[in-house]
Design brief:
The complex is a heterodimer of chains A (about 325) and B (about 350). With about 325 residues, chain A is of the alpha/beta class. Chain A folds into two domains: about 180 residues, Rossmann fold; about 70 residues, no CATH class. Chain A has twelve helices and twelve strands. In chain A, the strands form two sheets. An eight-stranded mixed beta sheet of chain A has the order 6-7-8-3-9-10-12-11, with helices on both faces. In chain A, helix 7 links the parallel strand 7 and strand 8. Chain A starts with 7 loop residues before the first strand and ends with a helix. Chain B has about 350 residues and is of the alpha/beta class. Chain B folds into two domains: about 210 residues, Rossmann fold (3-Layer(aba) Sandwich), CATH 3.40.50.300; about 70 residues, no CATH class. Helix content of chain B is about 30%, strand content about 20%. Classes of the chains: A alpha/beta (about 325), B alpha/beta (about 350). The interface between A and B is large, with 45 and 43 residues.
Chain lengths: ~325, ~350
Amino acid sequence: MTAGSNGNLLSVRDLRTYFETEDGTVKAVDGISFELKQGETLGIVGESGSGKSVANLSVMRLIPDPPGRIVSGSIVFDGRDVLTLPPRAVRDLRGKRISMIFQDPMTSLNPFMRISKQLMEVTQLHLGHTKKQAREHAIRMLERVGIPDAHERIDSYPHEFSGGMRQRVMIAMAVSCEPELLIADEPTTALDVTIQAQILELIKRLKAETGTSVILITHDLGVVAGMTDHTIVMYAGKIFEQAPTTELFERPGNPYTRGLLRSVPDPTDEQGALYQIPGLPPDLAHLPPGCPFAPRCERADEICRREYPPFVQLTADHYSLCHFANEVFAEST
Amino acid sequence: MDQATKPLISIEDLRVHFPLVGGPLFRRSRRMVKAVDGVTLDIYPGETLGLVGESGCGKTTLGRAILRLTEITSGKILFHGNDLAALSNSAMREQRRHLQIIFQDPYASLNPRMTVSQIIGEPLDTFRLARGRAKKERVQELMEMVGLSARFLKRYPHEFSGGQRQRIGIARALAVDPAFIVADEPISALDVSIQAQIMNLLDRLRRQKNLTYLFISHDLRAIRHVSDRVAVMYLGKIVELADGKTVYKNPLMPYTKALISAVPVPDPKVEAARRRIVLEGDVPSPINPPRGCRFHTRCPYAIDLCGKIEPQLVEIKPNHYAACIRISPEEPDIDRVGPGAAPGLQARTA
């Protein structure tokens, strides 16, 4: 494994992914930049429509075109720009060096194919395994993700597994080539809380064992708090705040982040009425001028409705997209 | 909760079993899914009782059974002196004026061909509560109550976001001025910022209209926030019941302990420091639930007896009930109970 410039495994610069719809152009991801270091876990939080999933599908070059289009930007993975690679080279990356797990395992498992075949395909294709090698490897992977009696269950079909077990199978498939980057898109959202705890522990353990970098996409601030080194908060296709995770939770520098944090009930804490962010998430085809969050923001002033906010640096690694970033940051100590 | 007040709803030993027909044609077996299997529970006027559990535990079936939206196998549901379980269908329909439900999926629960004013007005027609001008005013009043502009009266459900649709569903439930509402996962399909809005709305309405809720959710953080008391369900049974704070701070039953410890807390420092009980395996199937304590197959504290004896819901501390033979009022802390001991059992047989 080699890292690219500055020890960054992945470096995304000014990425813009737009969709043409009947309503007009939807700027699902609109000029985001971030880096991921080797072995690091990055959390991307946002509500539906914030662009968090589209950003990562772009990294995998999985945007359906049309209607989607990566309009500009660069995605440098291990020194090479994924956006300029020929399709063949991208296919070689996917599943081998970058792999993805999704919220619903049934979207990535073929319901008509035995698990064994699906798992074996990956290493036969990417690692040149023989059938025998691939099968042995597949059993080892299933054992590794905690599937009991792996050598018997390997010939089952996906529907013969429970939701949590299917998620394990998908993780086994995703990590079977020891990827350098694992992108997990809401990996536990469809699962019960005790099963969620199992899957999160599993991702942590695999990360510790293999040193893989992880991008964890979630709407759950609790999951981000427990799993990540850095966090990005997205809203309306933009990065609203990015910071080391502990700092983001302790000293948010953006009113949206602060509102989100306050609107999650904390079970360890006594509290009265829950803080609520008023209004609705924006319509991406018809964004207001100025700051897209301004109509819902408690701090919004005239300037917010008029001018697009600056991306303000608060500390070494802490940025916030807000006209009043410094003020919000100072308040939150 | 003042336990001296009379409960609004008393559920006694309620069972809901679904037949499951399967197997080859001539050797067809009729097995039973015991979705709700002997639940006894009081719901007091003005409280929000949170019902929490993982998928398949029977919480939704329990909520629907109280309103007789699913057939009851046995047991009683006492409401204002009537046993709802024994009422005829038409008598039950009259009672539904007082008992309403809010559904999880705001997309599936509203008729796409009806306007908002028709949806909210329908219960007023059904129970002949208002017509003409009075009805129109009532619908407008209901819309304002849930924070929707009366400008939207003539719009159709698809023109609204998930959170707004949930508001429409709440307005429809409130139209008949019910005493009791089952809120079945009312926020699960919504975004985080919208969840807070709906939780606050439900809480405000409860206080304004003196409503009583059964709030069903798998989201422990939401349950903790909205509930006065919390009931934890596992495979058709209530396994722990206490006020919300107690269930979270001092859970007694091992399943509740694991459940609470699995909830991610939005604080990196807390997350880094906490010890998480990670349970082995999945929730077993309710078709063939384990004998004895249904949790014993996953329980880190289980002893042989747990697989043989079905624990009863016992008042371990004042107003704090738990179903576990390894604890008793004298020895409520399972971590202090001697290895292999089952004080709950001795207390009962003594």
